[in-house]
Design goal:
Layout: H1 3-26, E1 29-47, E2 55-62, E3 66-76, E4 79-88, E5 103-109, E6 112-120, H2 122-125, E7 149-151, E8 162-172, E9 179-186, E10 198-208, E11 211-221, E12 229-241, E13 244-255, E14 263-275, E15 280-289, E16 293-294, E17 312-322, E18 327-338, E19 359-370
Parallel strand pairs: 7-8
Antiparallel strand pairs: 1-2, 1-3, 1-19, 3-4, 4-5, 5-6, 6-8, 8-9, 9-10, 10-11, 11-12, 12-13, 13-14, 14-15, 14-16, 15-17, 17-18, 18-19
């Protein structure tokens, strides 16, 4: 751990312990520390394009490890105030920006929660957490689903519909029977004389015992140009029986990458997890991206040019052995087969220099510890 991280944790400790002391004396608030460290030894490679140099690497990779602090104060009458500070921890290098993840202040009421800060957009929950058994690292489905993950302001990484968004105003409904609703709006703080980019995202979900179903929608305005409108629809469904859980999702992304141009692409995922016993689990995921349609003349993220071989597919396999409720040993493999103009890369820790048509793959053996 470098000196900057030592200083960050020391400052965090100085801020937390007085709060914790106050919480104990007043008995109305509480502070907690949480997170996980997830690291694996990987071998990755990319090949498949005639004439292109095959890329390969052996590496120690961090899988989006997290350090966070939460505080909550009961206000009475069913109301509470809370705050969360969450950052990345790059275990492989010992570094990491603080507060780079879900960081916000919130107000809970019987009518729902108001949340202000940087957070994952509601659409992301439709597939990543409820459906994908590989939620972080190169094995995850957001290599294709959502057209890659991004953290950034309006207009940054405009191809991505799998976002952690700053300047986000959210409403989370209380449970309405089995139903719940999330709405989010990214404030247009990047406004210029020429454009005013903003984002809306929503999620309607249903949970009843072993059944989960959801519909998500997201709209990006002025991400590619002053009057561009890009949107995404996503449906998700999961069901458990015994030790097996079946999962699936479908999405359609639509872009206006330039005036008078359009690009549409559909994709779907099916996945299954099966617990062999209380300590072992198998996971399988298959993702299929259809070829792009429309009249766009350039690629958008990993999506190739319409009218070309721009489809792709990904398969991921995994095995987990739980040493305890907090610690796992695991192994996984993934491979993406890109069409000639597609350039979908491995999620989170992609392969540098990947060319359209190349097929990235990787295998890893790792450990996860939660606290």
């Amino acid at each position: 751990m470098n000196s900057s991280m030592h200083r960050a944790l020391a400052l965090a400790g100085c801020a937390i312990f007085p709060l914790a002391t106050s919480a104990q004396s007043a008995d109305t608030s509480r502070v907690s520390l949480y997170g996980f460290l997830k690291v694996d030894v990987e071998q990755v490679r990319a090949s498949g394009t005639p004439g292109a140099v095959a890329l390969r690497a052996n590496r120690l990779s961090n899988n989006l490890s997290v350090l966070g602090f939460r505080t909550r104060e009961d206000l009475g009458g069913g109301m509470a105030a809370w705050a969360q500070f969450e950052g990345n921890v790059r275990v492989d290098t010992g570094d990491g920006p603080f507060n780079g993840r879900n960081t916000a202040v919130g107000l809970s009421t019987p009518a729902g929660e108001l949340v202000l800060g940087q957070w994952e957009a509601p659409l992301r929950f439709t597939s990543v957490y409820a459906i994908d058994p590989f939620t972080a690292g190169i094995f995850a489905s957001n290599s294709i689903m959502g057209n890659g993950f991004a953290t950034g302001a309006n207009g940054q990484s405009p191809a991505s519909f799998d976002r952690r968004q700053p300047n986000l105003l959210q409403y989370w409904s209380p449970a309405m029977g089995a139903w719940s609703l999330r709405l989010a709006y990214a404030m247009p703080e990047e406004k210029t004389d020429q454009s005013s980019p903003d984002m809306f995202s929503g999620l309607l979900s249903y949970r009843d015992g072993p059944l989960y179903a959801a519909w998500g929608y997201e709209l990006h305005r002025a991400y590619f140009g002053a009057h561009s409108r890009d949107d995404a629809h996503r449906l998700a469904l999961a069901y458990s029986f015994g030790r097996t859980r079946l999962r699936g999702s479908w999405e359609q992304l639509r872009y206006e990458p330039a005036p008078g141009q359009s690009l549409r692409r559909s994709a779907w995922q099916v996945a299954v997890t099966h617990q062999l016993d209380d300590w072992q689990e198998l996971a399988l995921s298959y993702v299929q991206a259809q070829a792009a349609r429309g009249n766009a003349t350039s690629a958008v993220g990993g999506i190739g040019i319409p009218g070309t071989d721009s489809g792709a597919r990904q398969i991921s396999l995994g095995y987990t052995y739980r040493l305890s409720k907090r610690t796992d040993l695991w192994a996984a493999y993934t491979r993406i087969a890109n069409g000639a103009t597609a350039a979908y890369n491995l999620s989170a820790n992609g392969i540098n220099g990947l060319k359209p048509g190349q097929d990235p793959s990787g295998m890893g053996i790792g450990i996860t510890h939660r606290f």
